[in-house]
Design the sequence.
């Protein structure tokens, strides 16, 4: 049986061989995806790892997948990977509805799935999309890689109760808006459903269970998964900045020998190391008791959002003039951080939620 | 006994043996904490990871950490001799001769001897190696002259670990020796030093022609720096582990009084509390690896990373609880919705010292940059 470490090593190897910054730059000009990589990832079974065994997957828990996500973040692997590797398989596991099970036949493993109206934008004022007379209407903001997704998982309402829907990207009436930001692969788009034809077979979960899927599965897994990705991104940023500080000379010395630069990097080193320790500790705790996920994911995402922003800004400062050009890869990392930082709660949102939690515990 | 069983053992002992009353008045405080150490020692909870031939329990450092966590969670005070136990004792065990070890270590554990540490000086803080206290050989014994400061329990301790210069003709790190000194020796004067947070456990200590036998040198003359650094490095990681547990308790106590008061916190206050809780959790995650290093008694620049994160967490907690007071930050003696203004002010002011003692945050950053990241002149690309 494969474990989390082997999974991460396998992913790291594939990314080293198959994903260059040239690939990222090329993909940036198109739909933001490196399609060859996605195909290889399917072949390597990335999308089976968290799929329940009864559905033909390996049935690994979320804890085992976090180290792999960290490797994806280290190399800026583009696309809705946390959604497709972790969230979708775990959502499928909760559905006991026979119609939903029938739908599983339709969902090919490795589908690129984007999440709509499920909590990515915690301050969104949009009402969830509604189904009336078999037609889905409404919109969702902050959808990662919506235009290149193959399907959407949608938090909606059928008037009487909440539902979790499966909607094909290509269905008539699906409108995606957004543009490519500054030559990067990051895509955060807006999705509108203009009377999309949906029926019972599209419904994965309905009623109270939808709240549970949102609060106990989708939100926490997205937070934990994105935090793991950011931990990898931070380590990459620190490594490139440390290397650069010893290569770049000013005043006849490597700039890394100046205390002003050393202290910036030392702080980034502590920040990045602490985040990685936190990902490992959360994974260890989740492996022992999966019910800690929602609370751990708050801490993880809060720390990751804060750390990644700090480390990326330090990296930019250490790189100096070359860092503010789009010639250098640094901007790709920086924009990954910006794309992810505010998803499923920004630093303060999560800190306030954590404070509410610890105060409740103290009562 | 495995760690889990040991934790149960510690927990049930602590439940059956309540914490002592510790008066605020200094002398009473010292006495109560010394009695507490004797009680803990008799129960086998002092020197848990020290060799049994010196009166320890011969268990792992993991057992020691587990006991400290339980002691702190039970809101019990630490034994008064912890300077000796954390810093001086391990040095004597590692570098002492048989006589020093068998004579000094058991008395340190039981609390018969309370040690203070004569390292820092007014002119030797971060640059400790430039210390000016001298020890000169005169007629077969050393004569110590100098001025030490930041000496915890300096006017109550009966022994002192003193770093003094024995050779000024060699590079500054090589000319320092480590002395095990009796505080009742003629020529020693300790004066209490009042801290910004109101505490008075610190002193300054004058050495005026204090006569010390060469048998009281730890290790060889000139080994002082190496010995002091060995245990200081080790102490950094262990200290972060212990303070993490104390921060947990401290934050929980404040949260209990906030929750009990029914106060409605502003978004700013909520975010500060959340930030503090977040950093304490992060410190807990990071120090899981510290224990592994302590078990292997491995010196590492990661100890400095622990100290830096500890500092950030301490100061986040201190700042968050201070900010709960709004305009009442110095309104001691008033009712602040059930919050203890005096205690909160103490917490905040104490937290500001964490980035100064035990190697300033700037010194720790130097260590991380040079030894962890390899940012050194000789590595120039």
Sequence:
């Amino acid at each position: 049986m494969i474990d989390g470490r082997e999974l991460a090593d396998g992913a790291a190897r594939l990314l080293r061989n198959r994903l260059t910054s040239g690939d990222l730059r090329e993909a940036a000009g198109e739909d933001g995806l490196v399609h060859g990589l996605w195909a290889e990832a399917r072949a390597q079974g990335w999308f089976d790892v968290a799929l329940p065994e009864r559905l033909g997957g390996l049935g690994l828990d979320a804890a085992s997948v976090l180290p792999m996500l960290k490797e994806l973040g280290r190399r800026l692997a583009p696309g809705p990977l946390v959604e497709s590797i972790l969230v979708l398989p775990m959502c499928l596991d909760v559905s006991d509805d026979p119609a939903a099970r029938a739908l599983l036949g339709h969902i090919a493993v490795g589908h690129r799935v984007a999440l709509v109206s499920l909590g990515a934008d915690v301050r969104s004022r949009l009402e969830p999309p509604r189904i009336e007379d078999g037609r889905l209407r409404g919109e969702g903001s902050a959808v990662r890689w919506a235009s290149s997704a193959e399907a959407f998982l949608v938090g909606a309402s059928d008037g009487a109760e909440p539902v979790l829907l499966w909607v094909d990207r290509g269905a008539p009436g699906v409108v995606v808006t957004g543009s490519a930001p500054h030559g990067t692969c990051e895509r955060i788009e807006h999705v509108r459903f203009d009377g999309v034809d949906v029926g019972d077979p599209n419904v994965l979960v309905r009623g109270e269970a939808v709240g549970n899927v949102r609060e106990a599965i989708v939100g926490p897994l997205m937070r934990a998964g994105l935090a793991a990705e950011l931990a990898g991104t931070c380590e990459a940023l620190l490594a490139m900045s440390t290397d650069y500080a010893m290569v770049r000379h000013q005043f006849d010395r490597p700039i890394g020998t100046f205390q002003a630069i050393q202290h910036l990097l030392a702080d980034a080193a502590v920040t990045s190391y602490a985040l990685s320790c936190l990902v490992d500790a959360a994974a260890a705790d989740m492996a022992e008791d999966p019910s800690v996920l929602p609370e751990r994911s708050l801490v993880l995402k809060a720390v990751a959002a804060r750390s990644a922003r700090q480390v990326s800004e330090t990296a930019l400062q250490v790189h100096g003039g070359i860092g503010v050009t789009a010639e250098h890869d640094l901007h790709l990392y920086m924009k990954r951080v910006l794309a992810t930082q505010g998803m499923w709660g920004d630093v303060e949102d999560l800190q306030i939620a954590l404070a509410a939690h610890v105060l409740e515990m103290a009562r | 006994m495995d760690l889990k069983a040991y934790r149960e053992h510690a927990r049930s002992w602590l439940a059956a043996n309540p914490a002592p009353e510790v008066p605020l008045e200094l002398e009473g405080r010292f006495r109560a904490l010394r009695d507490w150490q004797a009680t803990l020692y008799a129960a086998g909870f002092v020197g848990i990871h020290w060799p049994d031939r010196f009166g320890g329990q011969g268990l792992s450092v993991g057992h020691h950490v587990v006991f400290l966590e339980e002691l702190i969670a039970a809101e019990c005070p630490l034994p008064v001799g912890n300077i000796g136990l954390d810093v001086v004792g391990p040095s004597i065990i590692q570098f002492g001769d048989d006589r020093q070890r068998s004579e000094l270590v058991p008395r340190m554990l039981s609390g018969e001897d309370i040690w203070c540490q004569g390292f820092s000086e007014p002119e030797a803080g971060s640059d400790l190696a430039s210390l000016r206290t001298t020890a000169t050989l005169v007629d077969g014994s050393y004569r110590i002259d100098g001025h030490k400061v930041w000496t915890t329990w300096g006017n109550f301790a009966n022994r002192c670990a003193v770093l003094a210069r024995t050779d000024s003709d060699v590079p500054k790190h090589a000319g320092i020796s480590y002395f095990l000194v009796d505080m009742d020796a003629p020529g020693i004067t300790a004066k209490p030093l009042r801290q910004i947070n109101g505490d008075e456990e610190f002193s300054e200590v004058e050495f005026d022609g204090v006569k010390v036998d060469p048998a009281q040198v730890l290790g060889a003359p000139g080994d002082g720096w190496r010995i002091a650094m060995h245990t200081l490095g080790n102490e950094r990681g262990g200290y972060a582990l212990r303070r993490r547990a104390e921060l947990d308790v401290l934050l929980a106590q404040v949260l209990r009084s906030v929750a009990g008061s029914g106060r409605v916190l502003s978004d700013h206050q909520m975010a500060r509390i959340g930030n503090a809780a977040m950093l304490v959790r992060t410190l807990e995650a990071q120090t899981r690896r510290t224990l592994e290093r302590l078990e292997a008694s491995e010196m590492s620049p990661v100890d400095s990373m622990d100290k830096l994160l500890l500092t950030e967490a301490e100061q986040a907690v201190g700042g968050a609880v201070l900010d709960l007071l709004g305009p009442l930050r110095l309104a001691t003696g008033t009712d602040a919705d059930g919050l203890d203004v005096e205690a909160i002010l103490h917490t905040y002011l104490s937290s500001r010292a964490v980035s100064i003692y035990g190697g300033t945050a700037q010194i720790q950053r130097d260590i991380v940059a040079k030894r962890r990241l390899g940012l050194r002149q000789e590595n120039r690309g």
About this structure: Residues 327 and 336 of chain B are 10 Å apart (CA to CA). The mean pLDDT of chain B is 93. The beta strands of chain B are 115-118, 134-138, 141-152, 159-165, 176-182, 188-193, 202-212, 217-218. The two ends of chain B are 52 Å apart (CA to CA).
